[in-house]
């Protein structure tokens, strides 16, 4: 099964040595949601026309390259009573359980380890350090190649855009040219459809992270 853009995001979002996340779960979960929507758009399974998302091509059992997580999201979109904005979908898909499923999936493939540790010797958490660094290194190399001036492919451009939207780009690629990151994330190089996809998803990730953070703060204050 091919690795999804969301899984590539997760690999970059965790330190390889100890599996600690580089950003908060609120931003990361919004980024995962955006990456899933962007991948569905790039593969022609959803449409981002007129600032809303609609399903175009449902998954057919046995299709090459189908992914259970993507198929689940597509089914949710297809069964909505009316088209919704990308921001609405990022909030809808914002999920710690989805993040954990994708991390466990990477662990099942042998890419990550799954370890239970205690923070401050008291609070149990699960960490996902790298077991096989090959995939993560390949993703970093591909992104660095584009940030260094190479023409981006659509998937790498989406990944860079999501990294920027959830404020992960500076942590993973601190030496990258900020203007280059912005140029790729804004999609000036791309076709109209791809540029619209990147712009819509990036705006949705930022809005989704802010909404989730606000909701969490309100819940904590009540």
TrEMBL record:
Main location group: Golgi
Transmembrane found in the keyword field: no
Subcellular compartments: Golgi apparatus membrane
Lipid bilayer topology: Peripheral membrane protein
Keyword tags: Golgi apparatus, Lipid-binding, Membrane
Molecular-function GO terms, alphabetical: phosphatidylinositol-4-phosphate binding
Domain of life: Bacteria
One Gene Ontology cellular component annotation held by this UniProt entry: cytoplasm
InterPro entries: GPP34-like, GPP34-like_sf
Full protein name: GPP34 family phosphoprotein
